[in-house]
Amino acid sequence: MTGSVSDLVRKSIDSSPSLKELLAKGLLSLSSYAIHIQPEIEHAAGKSVRSAAIIMALRRYAEDLRLESRSFSKPGLTFKINMATDINSINFRTNGFTQPLRGIKSGFLNVIIGTQEACIIYSAENHEFIKALIEPSQILSFNKDLVALSLIFNGGFDQTPGIIYESARQLAWADINVIEIISTKTELTFVIKRTDSLKTYEILQSFKPGL
Question: What totals of helices (H) and strands (E) does the chain contain, helices first?
Answer without folding.
Answer: 7, 6
